[in-house]
Amino acid sequence: MTPEEQQRQRRAADIFDAVVELADAERKARLEALCVDDAALRSQVERMLAADVGGTEPFAGNAARWSTELAAETAVQQPDWQGRRIGAWQIVGVIGHGGMGVVHEVRRDDDAYQQRAALKLIRIGADPVVARERFLRERQMLAQLQHPNIATLLDGGFTAGGDPYFVMEYVDGQPIDAWCDARKLGLRERIGLFAQVLDAVHHAHRNLVVHRDLKPSNILVDNEGRVKLLDFGVAKQLQGSDATTIGARALTLEYASPEQLNAAPITTATDIWQLGIVLYRLLGGAHPFGLSHDTPLPRQLQQLGREPEALTRAAARVSAETAASRGYNPAALAAALRGDLSSIVQGCLQRAPEHRYPSVDALADDLRRWREHQPLRIVAPGRWKTARLWLRRNRVLAAAAGSIAVAVLAGTGLALWQADVARRHSANAQEALQFLSDTLTAAAPENAMTHQVSVRELLDKAREELDRRDTAAAEVRQPLQRLLGDLYQSLGEPQIATDLFEAGLRGVEPRERDEALRLAETWKNYSTALGAAMRGEDSLAAAEQSAALRRRHAPGDAHQELFALIGLGYGNYYADRDGEARELWLRAATLAEGVPDLPLLPVVEMYSMLAGVEADTGQPSEAVKFANKALAYADARGLPPQSPWRINLLRALTAAQLRSGNPDAAEAAIRQAVGLAEDTLGGKGDLSSKVYGQLGTVLRHQNRYREAIVAQERAMQAVVGDTPANIAIDLDKLASIYKNFGDYPRALELFARSLAKLDEAGASADDRTRRRIDRNLANCLVAAGRHAEAEPLLQRLMESAIRIEGMDSMEYVFVAWQQVLLAQGKSDARTMESMLPELRARAGRRFPPGHPVMANMLRAESALAYLQGNLPAAERLQREGMEGLRGKGASSVDLARAQVELARIHLEQGKHPEARELLGEALPVLREAVLPQEVRRAEAESLARRLTMKG
Predict the structure, then answer these.
(1) Across-strand partners of 89?
(2) 709 with 696: CB under 8 angstroms?
(3) Half-sphere exposure for 430 (CA within 13 Å, toward CB)
(4) Which residue has the higher pLDDT, 767 or 455?
(5) Where are the alpha helices (DSSP H) in 38-114?
(6) Are residues 201 and 263 in the same domain?
(7) How many Cβ atoms sit within 10 Å of the Cβ of residue 215?
(8) pLDDT of amino acid 30
(9) Quick one: 239 and 138 in the same domain?
């Protein structure tokens, strides 16, 4: 194609783009103005417009239609060949249209044998010389391409009219992208399937054949998972020449390479480009140029002239359904594609052919390297990345579980167990080794009938094998039970872990120091599992057993005393003894400052837990201090910036900043944690779930409820098969967001499901989590106006708070505050008057005067004054409360709610202009943020109607 012809086509495409959306009359005038006296140009644009509104899709596998319109050729209607016999074959239907022919479904119509096949004929109306030459060339190429992933040539010849045909095997399958989506294949499975495509294309290239029309519709997958490459109708043999232009060439624009569009020489690099687009769609669910069958035809050419969009950016914008078909949400999918996979796709989609992968074999090799966690050849990895990939290849359990902790536990536990049994008689050691051998053999691919054996599957098989060998000696069984307990605990299965720990520790007494310290660590892990299973008192008892072993067998050892204090802190925390836990961790923190060479993780976890307890007990500034101390300690000890261990440190800082009344700082911290979770964990798993959930909490405190709902739902999607207790907590968070959003029926439904999950988990009425969820439920009942249901629930919670934690606890303050809100909702001034002074005094001992909690106390006192008819005092207190909120940078929604309350006071005072001004500011904010039935918005709408009636 000459430069002049290319320029003319671009001009036609630009005019089409300018007029395609216009009404007929306006389009006609615009065409006259743009085409001036160029009748040929106008005719070309009009043909393109006609093609765009036609009843068929010209790009449904047949890009020649676009070529025809650009070259001003006329398409000819295909005849109906149904029922005709060609050679030994009878035509029974039309399968589709290939590059240069119609493809019919045929059945063999002689007595030799029965067979279903696909028969291809030259398209009627095509240039007879060029078409016949290409058709015969395709038949010859198919005859020489004998490969299991290329459709096989069965027969060929000429019709009675002299037209050539050939018959190939019928492939009963789906396009590769549809096949993968229908089965929700993950990225690794998709790449494994794509390897078959590469093998087929590599075979073609070895036979000097370039396909030139690689796209999903030409790559079918049958029900057995076998790839079949079809349609070599536009293929090119490398030793030949092809000087034809786009107007005489069949191609699919969505997959066309730059050299195809610009009439440049065709090489194997063309197939590399098209394979890159297919891979891009398989992995990311999008097109690198944003094209689809609905994209107007000339716009496809315009888009193809740009640079392809980064794979990760495109993946982040796909629909939730598209991402879910790959096992992710959009953000997690983008994170999973970041790095090597993006580099591989980018290596295919370079505009200059010489900058792409040099061969299909090189592309296949890099994909193999990705699957085996080896450095790619297309990029030179740094030393850190090379080391990280080596660890991923060799840590076995960790690679499958996605958890560094599993590898550490597995490696350490196995080493300790081996050292333990080595000191016992050889018969027990031999029996234990045989157990491991049998377990791993049962999980091997040839026995498990799968090439992917997860850590969970491996552990389940080990547990089954151990149960089967119930006659094994205790010296063999119990160390294995303890090891399996560690591993199940690391996978988030505390109930299974506790059963294994209990059996593995029963009656075991250490014989010497090292064995005692190993058992102490196991008792500590047992304590953690019991706490996660909501068995708080048992958790504390196990922690005390761990501490006793450390102190008895390593007296005076500062390291072991530190571990004892940290473990006892956890035990008390799980037993709902926050005060004792805090004191133990403070003692550990003091000890840690004078002990050199401490292990990093226990210390930073201790600081993080201290931050959480300080926040829970109303000491937000101390909480922020300890959270920052944890991060500083990690930095000083060289914890890498991308380490997943930083996630919990940032979560602790988030909670502390939120409790200190600084939601913007909290959001900044949790956004860092989200980025780390997506980069290091792929946005999946229990920790990712907690991070997304905490983001939802922060957004809820900022009154960004729609965003908060999305974040919390992502949290619930990040982990599959979670424990009932964790599901209950997630449901409670989602319910609280819906409550603040004003959807009270949905919130109450979610609270009920949350409490049902706690019942399933066996949580008692006094369990801390249950009491918190009951408190949130009561708050929702008050907001929904269901006061009779909220009152007995709050009374029971108050009795529990006094009995379990005392009147000086934060729990008491929280429940008392809910009772004040209930009294306000019932217009019960007497109860408010009796409760507010004490509540304000208790809150004042924990929060500074400018804290949002104290600002809301002033608003409650304003509500009491309003109920008592003291409107000047109500106005003064409400203004003070609003100033307190502004001083701490409260959200616009919190201020809007306060403005509504002040507008109500002004309305009762007869200050209508002031009330209108306040509502004029508050209503747009509330209408944007919450539903019409939300309490304060409903009140604002009612006040606005009253003011309108009063003129």
Answers:
(1) 86, 108
(2) yes
(3) 3
(4) 767
(5) 39-52, 64-70
(6) yes
(7) 22
(8) 77
(9) no
Is residue 537 a part of any domain in this protein? no
Distance CA 728, CA 709 (A): 16
Predicted local confidence at residue 627, as pLDDT = 84
152 three-class SS: coil
Q: Which of 102, 99, 204, 198 is nearest to 143 (CA)?
A: 204
- Give the residue numbers annotated as catalytic, written as ranges: 213
- Residues 266, 381, single domain; the answer is yes
In a domain, 309, yes or no: yes
Boundary-marking domain end, from 391, 425, 460: 391
Torsion of CA 192, 198, 203, 205, to 10 degrees: -170
- 647 and 687 Cβ atoms separated by less than 8 Å: yes
Question: Any idea what the CATH number is for the domain that residue 362 is in?
Answer: 1.10.510.10
In a domain, 276, yes or no: yes
Please answer whether residues 527 and 543 qualify as being in contact, where contact means their C-beta atoms are separated by less than 8 angstroms: yes
Range of the domain at 202: 181-391
* Inter-residue contact 690 to 733 (CB < 8 Å): no
Q: Two tokens at 215?
A: 């796209």
Same domain, yes or no: 33 and 165: no
Quick check: helix, strand or coil at residue 317? coil
Is 218 within the bounds of a domain? Answer: yes
Task: Give CA torsion, residues 81, 84, 85, 86, to 10 deg.
Answer: -20
pLDDT at 135: 61
Domain end: 369, 391, 413, which one?
A: 391
Looking at the structure of the chain, the number of domains it has is 5
The letter for the amino acid at 812 is Y
Please state the pTM of the whole predicted model: 0.46
The whole-angstrom separation of Cα 233 and Cα 248 is 14
- What one-character DSSP code corresponds to residue 101? E
603 and 630 housed in the same domain: yes
- Residue of 421, 276, 455 lying closest to 350 (CA atoms): 276
What are 595-626's pLDDT values in tens digits?
777 777 788 778 878 887 777 766 778 888 88
With CA atoms as reference, report the closest residue to 683 among 638, 727, 713.
713
At residue 874, the 3 state secondary structure works out as helix
The pair of three-digit structure tokens given for residue 345, joined into one six-digit string: 């796709």
Residue 271 CA to residue 213 CA, distance in Å, equals 8
Return d(Cα 266, Cα 568) in angstroms, integer. Answer: 72
